[in-house]
Design brief:
It is built from 2 helices and 13 strands; from the N terminus they run βββββββββααββββ. By secondary structure, it is mainly beta. Strands 1, 5, 9 and 10 form a 4-stranded parallel beta sheet that branches. Strands 2-6-11 form a 3-stranded parallel beta sheet, with no helix packed on it. A 3-stranded parallel beta sheet has the order 3-7-12, with no helix packed on it.
C-alpha cells in the first residue's frame, strides 16, 4: 500500500520602508546685511530613519501520518534618502563692523538604519526551512516611485546596476554667489556631510 504523505506549508514575511525627499536651506537672497557683530547663516539636516522588520515561521507536526513540512520566512527593508542642505548668500550685500565676520555652514548629519531578522524552523515529520533577508539603504537616488519599483523588482535587479539609474546627488553646500562682501572679521564657509549608515541582516534556518 503506498504511503500517504500529508504536506504542510507556512510562509511568513516582514516589510518596512522609509522614503524621504527633504531639502533644508538657509538663504540670504537679494538682501542687504549690515551688522556690528558676526553674521551666521546655518542649515543642518539631522534625520533618523530606521526600517526594521522581523519574520518568524515555526511549524510543528504532531501527526501520526508521514508529514512533509515546508516553512519559509523572508524580510525586506529599505531606506531611500534624497534632498539637499544649502547655506547660501546670493545677489546680496554684506557689511560688518568691529570684529564681525560672516559664517556659512551646511551640515548633513543623518542616521540611517536598515535591520532585518528572519527565522524559519520545522519540528516533527520531514521537511525543510528557508529564510532570507534583504536590507538596503539608497542614498542619492531618485525616490519618485521608489516603493513601487522595489516591490516589483527581483533580487538580482536590486543588487545589480541596471535598477539604479535615477541618480539624484545629495548636495551639501555653503556658498556665496554674485554678492559684495565687506567683513572686518573672519569669512568662513563650511560644508560637511557625516551621514551614518547601518545595515544588519540575521537569518536562522532549522530544518526538521
Amino acid at each position: 500500500t503506498p504511503a500517504v504523505i500529508f504536506t504542510e506549508l507556512v510562509l511568513q514575511k516582514g516589510y518596512a520602508a522609509n522614503v524621504v525627499n527633504k531639502a533644508v536651506s538657509a538663504t540670504a537672497d537679494h538682501a542687504d546685511l549690515d551688522a556690528t557683530g558676526e553674521i551666521v547663516i546655518s542649515a543642518e539636516r539631522s534625520l533618523q530613519l530606521a526600517a526594521i522588520a522581523e519574520a518568524m515561521s515555526l511549524l510543528t507536526s504532531n501527526s501520526f501520518f508521514d508529514t512533509f513540512l515546508v516553512t519559509a520566512a523572508g524580510t525586506l527593508v529599505f531606506n531611500g534618502l534624497e534632498g539637499s542642505v544649502l547655506a547660501v548668500v546670493s545677489d546680496s550685500t554684506v557689511d560688518t563692523a568691529a570684529a564681525g565676520g560672516l559664517s556659512l555652514t551646511a551640515g548633513e548629519n543623518s542616521l540611517i538604519d536598515a535591520t532585518t531578522e528572519t527565522q524559519a524552523q520545522v519540528a516533527g515529520g520531514n521537511g525543510g526551512a528557508l529564510s532570507g533577508s534583504v536590507a538596503m539603504n539608497a542614498i542619492g537616488w531618485t525616490t519618485s516611485g521608489f516603493l513601487t519599483r522595489v516591490a516589483g523588482a527581483a533580487l538580482d535587479q536590486l543588487i545589480g546596476t541596471s535598477f539604479w539609474t535615477g541618480e539624484s546627488k545629495i548636495a551639501v553646500e555653503a556658498k556665496i554667489v554674485s554678492s559684495d562682501i565687506d567683513v572686518v572679521g573672519a569669512l568662513s564657509l563650511v560644508a560637511a556631510s557625516a551621514t551614518q549608515v547601518k545595515l544588519s541582516t540575521d537569518d536562522l534556518e532549522d530544518p526538521a
